[in-house]
Design brief:
The complex is a heterodimer of chains A (about 260) and B (about 375).
Chain A lengths: L1 E5 L2 E3 L5 E2 L6 E2 L5 E3 L1 H16 L4 E7 L5 H10 L3 E5 L9 H15 L4 E5 L10 H9 L3 E11 L2 E8 L2 E8 L2 E5 L11 H9 L3 E4 L40 H14 L4
Parallel strand pairs in A: 1-6, 1-8, 6-7, 7-13, 8-12, 9-12
Antiparallel strand pairs in A: 2-5, 3-4, 9-10, 10-11
Chain B lengths: L6 H28 L4 H9 L18 H14 L1 H21 L2 H13 L4 E4 L15 E5 L2 E12 L6 E7 L9 E7 L5 E6 L10 E12 L3 E2 L5 H37 L1 E2 L2 E2 L4 H29 L5 H30 L6 H10 L7 H13 L1
Parallel strand pairs in B: 1-4
Antiparallel strand pairs in B: 2-3, 3-7, 4-5, 5-8, 6-7, 9-10
Helix pairs in contact in B: 1-3, 3-4, 3-6, 4-5, 4-6, 6-7, 6-8, 6-9, 7-8, 8-9, 8-10
The chains are: A alpha/beta (about 260), B alpha+beta (about 375).
Chain lengths: ~260, ~375
């Protein structure tokens, strides 16, 4: 079985500080990490590899050359191979262009049974790239996977909803997106770190190498444009906790609603 | 001369830091209080090859370097000095002498499972009358056919009772003084080997410290490490490296207490402003930060010397002398800056202060480090 896991290197938003004057993110000195949901996707792929014979896990990413570190980390966690698409031509890609480029890398790899993505990246929060890849490749997708079973040539997934779940079955090949409830990701192994940096396990490719549709990648190939980034003003709400027994609280609530002329 | 970590070392640091925060810190106070050996975390460390960091992959290790190992001990010790010394004693005192002095058969049989973390190691040199005067060994080993028969008692042995493999020193020829000492690899199940008293300690309470009793203990001849009479040399060489591990532990303790204290002085208010706004306390913070940085440079330098195959005996002694003194000094000041709260178990700094003291004592007291440093300079 071949599993491809898409990961993104993102700034650790826990460490990001806001410039109090400009209101923008201070990115200098902020450590880069594997996007947390992507780490869950990778962990699930590695668990499948641990539990079955002949499973190969390939990690795919798009980003600047420094993103190699994220792929080495994925190797150190147990992935077999990693491919980084790094090319000026794909810089500035929006989700459409990114999914176009990643789909090209996946087609370049060829064989796959499962494509695993994280639900969304903590720096953009769009949750679009995974589903778009499935559309580019014409395969089924199950998003927000919080539990997964492999049954023959099918996957059975619990798809998390706000107040419940769907039990969804799909034939492979399939694209899945992981939520953090799916598992507790392992640490990279120390041996894997030294092997990952040493070996030829991380392969760098250009847009040409993977036959990217050049009209649909990069800034020019991106249909979305960011006009302005801003923090919406938070709506302040007065919260009043009512105390006492349920009956007393209900009485107080009616009194308060009457006071406010709401009933 | 560069001061930057390699990409590998940086990632090791990040992983160790995350592991320490998530797995070790949450139980640090509990295992200190109860004196419980954290075997569950030793097993987790084994899973991620943390128990064989500086040894080649073909011997079960992680294929890493000495500085990465030092960083691992440092990061663990920031949150739990007991866990730090479990790793240090296992790696420096048990794995290393087999790697350096062992035969190929001994490496395959003992180093591979130790470095993989399938087994835990310990080192037995100290006796009740042979502490700093380590050459005054009273444990004896007598060759009898295919076996050595060991008799005697070791005390204060780190990982004692928890370890599977012990490097044990004993007199094979009393007439030759320290040249009559030999080293042996002893398995916990060898007949005649038992564990005696478990020490109840002031600090590093979750690290096992035990008495080892050898009563006609039968050790196969092929478990002699090095040659007969090379034991003292092996012990001293091993301790040179071990000191870098303890120096890293001391550094970690100081850093851990300091980080807690920086957080505290920013939050705690007296006279209407945070402690951090009082200049007298700022000076203490500045001095502590400077001492920690100096200790770190000494410890890292000693590790790099060892890694590069340069002499490191003096460097290791300096690193341990200074880092342990810094640990004691910094943790004492950190308790002071926490005031009454620092004296309670609600804050970790009192534990760190208790843990710091041992770093000035074991693997050579501070006075021994001074002897080693002076002997290197005045020879």
């Amino acid at each position: 079985m071949n599993i491809i896991v898409c990961v993104k290197q993102v700034p650790d938003t826990n460490e990001v500080k806001i410039d109090p004057v400009k209101g923008t993110l201070i990115r200098e000195g902020v450590p880069s990490i594997i996007n947390p949901d992507d780490r869950n996707a990778l962990e699930e792929a590695l668990r499948i590899k641990d539990s079955m014979e002949d499973v190969k896990v390939t990690v795919v990413s798009m980003g600047p050359p420094q993103a190699e570190v994220a792929l080495v980390e994925a190797i150190a966690m147990g992935a077999d191979e990693a491919i980084l698409l790094t090319d000026r031509a794909v810089a500035g890609s929006d989700t459409w262009a990114t999914s176009t480029a990643l789909s090209a890398v996946i087609k370049y790899i060829g064989d796959f049974d499962i494509i695993f993505c994280g639900r969304q990246a903590i720096d953009g929060d769009t949750a679009q790239v995974g589903p778009q890849i499935a559309e580019h490749l014409g395969i089924p997708q199950i998003t927000y996977v919080e539990e997964l079973k492999i049954q023959g040539n099918k996957v059975v997934a619990k798809r998390a909803l706000e107040d419940g779940y769907f039990l969804v079955e799909a034939e492979m090949p399939v694209l899945l997106t992981a939520v953090k409830e799916l598992n507790e990701p392992r640490y990279p192994s120390i041996k894997g770190i030294f092997e990952g940096f040493k070996g030829d396990k991380v392969k760098m490719v250009s847009a040409k190498d993977v036959n990217c549709d050049m009209d649909n990648v990069g800034l020019d190939g991106s249909p979305t444009n960011v006009i302005k980034s801003f923090t919406p003003p938070t709506k302040s709400r007065d919260l009043e906790m009512l105390e006492g027994t349920p009956a007393e609280q209900a009485r107080k609530l009616i009194v308060r609603l009457r006071e406010e002329n709401l009933v | 001369m560069g001061f930057e970590l390699t990409r590998e070392q940086e990632m090791v640091r990040d992983v160790m830091r995350k592991f320490a925060e998530n797995e070790v810190k949450p139980i640090a106070a509990e295992i200190d209080e109860s004196g419980r050996f954290p075997m569950e975390n030793v097993k987790k460390m084994a899973r991620y090859n943390m128990l064989g960091i500086p040894f080649p992959v073909e011997y079960g290790g992680a294929g890493g370097d000495d500085l990465s190992y030092v960083i691992a001990v440092e990061e663990l010790s920031k949150v739990c000095a007991s866990t730090g010394v479990i790793l240090s004693a296992h790696t420096s005192l048990a794995c290393w002498p087999i790697y350096h002095f062992g035969t190929e058969e001994q490496k395959q049989k003992y180093l591979v499972p130790l470095a993989k973390g399938e087994k835990l190691g310990a080192f037995g040199l100290t006796e009740s009358n042979a502490g700093t005067d380590a050459a005054a060994q009273q444990t004896t080993a007598v060759l009898d056919g295919d076996n050595y028969i060991l008799n005697g008692t070791k005390i204060f042995i780190t990982n004692g009772g928890q370890a599977d493999v012990y490097i044990i020193f004993a007199m094979t020829d009393k007439s030759k003084g320290h040249r009559g000492i030999s080293a042996f690899i002893v398995e916990k199940d060898f007949p005649g080997f038992s564990i005696g008293k478990i020490e109840d300690k002031m600090g590093i309470r979750a690290s096992a410290t035990a008495e080892l009793i050898f009563d006609d203990c039968v050790v196969p001849k092929e478990n002699l490490l090095g040659k007969e009479g090379e034991g003292f040399k092996i012990a001293m060489a091993t301790l040179d490296g071990g000191r870098i591990g303890i120096a890293a532990q001391a550094l970690g303790i100081a850093e851990g207490a300091f980080e807690e204290t920086v957080k505290y002085v920013k939050e705690r208010e007296q006279f209407g402003r945070p402690l951090a706004k009082f200049q007298g306390l700022q000076w203490m913070i500045a001095d502590m930060a400077t001492a920690i940085e100096a200790a770190k440079l000494l410890v890292y330098k000693a590790a790099i010397c060892k890694q590069k195959g340069l002499p490191y005996s003096k460097e290791a002694a300096m690193a341990k002398l200074y880092a342990s003194q810094t640990a004691m000094d910094v943790t004492t000041k950190c308790v002071q800056l926490h005031g009454g709260y620092g004296f309670t178990k609600d804050y970790p700094v009192e534990r760190m202060m208790r843990d710091a003291k041992i770093t000035e004592i074991y693997e050579g007291t501070s006075q021994v480090q001074q002897m080693v440093i002076a002997a290197n300079i005045l020879r």
